[in-house]
Structure formats: structure tokens, C-alpha cells
Amino acid sequence: MTSTHAATTTVLGDVSYQQLTGDFNGPVKSPAKGKGRAVVSEFTTTDYTLDERPFFIPIDKSGVIGALEKLNRQLIKAGRGSIISKKEPTDWIGKEVTPGQLGLINHGGSPKVLTKSGRYPGFPLRNWWGRKWRGTTGLSDTVIEFQGLTVVQVSQNQAAVISDPQNHIFVIKNSGFVAYAIEGTYDVLSIVDQTHLPTVVKDKLTGVNLGWTHEVKMHSKITGTNDKDYVVATFLNIPASNCAILQRGDDLELLGAGQSVITNPSVTLRGLYTLGENQLEMPTKDIFTRDQVPVSLTIYLKWQLTEPLKLATHGYNTPYDALRDKTQSILTQIVAHLDYSSMVKQRSIGPDNMEDGSDPSSAFLDALRTRAMDEMHEAALEYGIILKDLAVIDRQFKGEIASTMDKLTTRALQAQVEAANVDRENSNKVKQEEGALSVTRIKAQAANAQADAEAYRIITAAKAQAQRMKIEAEAQAEATRIAAEAEAKAVRIKAQADAEVVDQFAREMELRRIEVSKVQAYGSKTIFVPTETGVQMGSAMALGMAASMGANGHK
Questions:
Q1: pTM score > 0.70 for this model?
Q2: How far apart are the C-alpha atoms of 174 and 156, rounded to whole Å?
């Protein structure tokens, strides 16, 4: 049925949505627009202060002081006392009110505010009868509460949850108001940072972050001794590619990504959903084959939720719940028509092994390919889900035949292991022999390389020695030649010098010097024999003998 409740504030904020009403098979309703405000449905509106409240002034471009002045005029017009003090400031003595502040005065239980900066002298300079100074407060403070006067102003990310004197809840976002409660009070229940809500909501199965929530509670006094807290507002921060579903009676609403708040107690949060891809391994319950062998399958599922409203109308909280029931039903029907032998030969089924028609377990593969995927895809569309992949990644048989097959499989595996061990040992021996041969070959190559290096070293050393000797001989010969040339040149120069001496005495002196040099060179007992003529030789020998005999006679 269609909702008939009044157009009160239930969901606040910029939202994208679709609404499904009645028996959930009708068309989706489109947003409606109201004059001066965007009314998206009976669930949603962006105007937070539709109800007219006495002495309630929204803060506009004139700021807090302008709103206070408007409120003051309303109070005077209604025959009530003003809230703006008539005191004028001075600059010499008194209580100080700086720019950007409000002065607060308790005037017999009623609020008085000083909006002008300066100093305000006390008694007896000014009339303070029945008045008390209560200090100052900042004009830009988020919340100012004083003697029934309430000032609230919030920034872009903030939201203020307010309870009016009739305990009606409304929310202020990116704006503010000035109000004076004649009866009751305006209570600021909470200032919420909409982009950093404290409670994280995650999918328990996939671990996907679905969004953040925060509940604002109001403390209510029921009797003299009983107090209780009630949830009056629920904030939602839904990330991109996610959504939320709200419910009021039989009406459902799809809420898109962004920041929203629920204040109507008849509207509940059905759940948060992700519109992205998800994947999960799902174990099934025991299924009996045609020959009554129980088998348990492990299924890999990959899906994407595209229409959450369809899922909610079928009574499922998550896409996994819907897929699990449908998958169990379809697989039960398929396996019930298959034999144990057709399923035991292959352990997995997926895109990589579904194309080979020669597989001995083709009956099982064909059944899954032609029936499971098609039926699951069609069934998932009824819930607003697109099934993107389905695979059987494991199966476990149970019962006596399963235990027998396990024993046979164990024996076969043991035989395979033993054969593999023998092959491994033989392979290790071959590898060891190959390794020893390789080591011998490497050692021989190393010895050959070392001998070649030694021979090359010896040859190189011999060549270097021969080259050195050759160079030394050539150097010695060259030195001898140079010395001979120098000596010959010196003889020539000396002979030329001697030839140029014409004085007989000088020549005799030179001859005597030569004789002295000869004696010094060969010693005083050396006999010099001339070789010119025999007569001269005999005369010299006679003279020498006579001299020798004379010397012996003297002894």
C-alpha cells in the first residue's frame, strides 16, 4: 500500500534514491519538487525547519547580531522584554567586551546580551539593580545557551541535532539559528562531524566497508526515578558504489552515496549494501548422488548486486544469503542425476577445464555448464544480482564407499610416492655421477690452464731476459764508442796543443813532466827500455848495469 504519513522530516541531506511501494512489484516513484524546497519523497526532504516556531530566527548574511536584533524586535512586538541591553559602552572603566564577543547579563532570570564592544561601568556609575554580570562568550561559538536563549551555528561538515520545547527533533546543517524558549528549552543534543562517523559497518562475510553510522540519543525522564535514552537521529555516511535501504511499513527507499540523517522514528534502516563486485567460497550441505553417495561441495561465487530493492523485497539481508539458498537447491538437483563414478575422477571445475569434451567426467561438467550457470544466473537476476562466475573448487565424498575410496586412493598414492622416491633416488645418483664428472672435467681444464699460464710465464721471462741483455750490450758498446771518440779527440787536441809550443825550453819541460808522470805511474824501480836502435839499447843497458853495480858496492 502507499504511505499516507505527513510530510515530516525523516531523512536529511543530499541523496539519490529510488522508492518501491505497495506490493514491491509496481513502478519506481520519481522525486517530487516543492516550492522553495526539494521534497524528494515522503521519506526525504532537505528543509530542516519547516515547522514555524515562535521566537525562532535563522541566521542569515547579517550574522548572529542581526538575528539577535530580529529576535529582539519579535519579543518587543509580542509584549515581552527585550534581550539586547540598552547599556552603552565607555572606554575608561567597567566590564570589558572585546570585538567578536557577547556580554551576558542575568536580568532577574531573563537574558540580556551586550552586542557592542567596550567597557561597561558597574554600580553605582550605572544601574545594575537586579542584574548580574555573567561574563562573555564568542560570537562564533558553535553553541551558546544562556537563560533560555539558544544560539547554534554549524559549519559545512557539522550537523546539530536539536530538540525544541515540544521535544520535536530537527537537524541544522551548514547554517544556524537564534531562538528564545518562553516555555521549555531548545536542547542541543549533539554536534556531529558528518564525514567522520564513529561506527563502521562492514560486511561480515566479505569484509567490505559498507559505510559509517552514528546514533544520537536523547535523555528522557519518565518518572521521578526512571531515566532512559532514546535514539532520535541516525546519521549515515555512505561511500561511493554503496547504498542504503530505508523502510517505513511496507514502503522501501533506496538511499545513494553521501551523508544523510534519519529523524523520523517510523523510518528504520533496513541495511547497507555494496554495489561493487564480491567473491566468496561457499561450502554446501551434503548432497546425494543418484547411487546415494553423499558429497559435500565447495563453491566459488563471484557476483555484483545491481538492484538492492529486489533483494530486500525477497527478505534477504545480504546477496550471499540469496545465492546460498539458490545454489544449494540447483546443485542438489544436478548432483541427484549424476553417478558417483562421474564425479570422482575430477577434483575441480572452472573456466579452464570446461571446454574439453573428452574428459571422462564430462557428464558432471556438462551438467554444471549447461544447467548450473544458466539457472543460477537467471535466479540471481530475480534478486537484483548478476552472477559473474561459478566454480566447484573441491568435493568431499562421505559414507562407506567414500572411506573405501579413500583407502584405495591412499594405497595408490603410497605406490606413487614409492615410485617417485625410487625415481628420485636414481635421478640423484645420476646427478651425483654427472656432478663428479663435471668436477673432474673442471679440474683438468684448470690444470691445463695453469700449465699454459706457467709456460707462457717462462717464455715471457726468457724473452724479457734476452731483450735486457741485448739492450745492455748495445748500451755498453755505445758507451765504449763514445769514450773512444772522446779520448781520441782529447789526444788530438793535446797533440795540437803540443805542436803549437815552439819554445825549446817549454818542450824540454814538457818532456821532463812526461818522465815524472811515467815514474809516478810505474814506480821508481821501473826500467824504461828504448826501442829505437840497438846501440842505444846497449848503451842504456851498460849504464843501467854500472849503476846497479855501483849501488851494490856502496852497500
A1: no
A2: 5
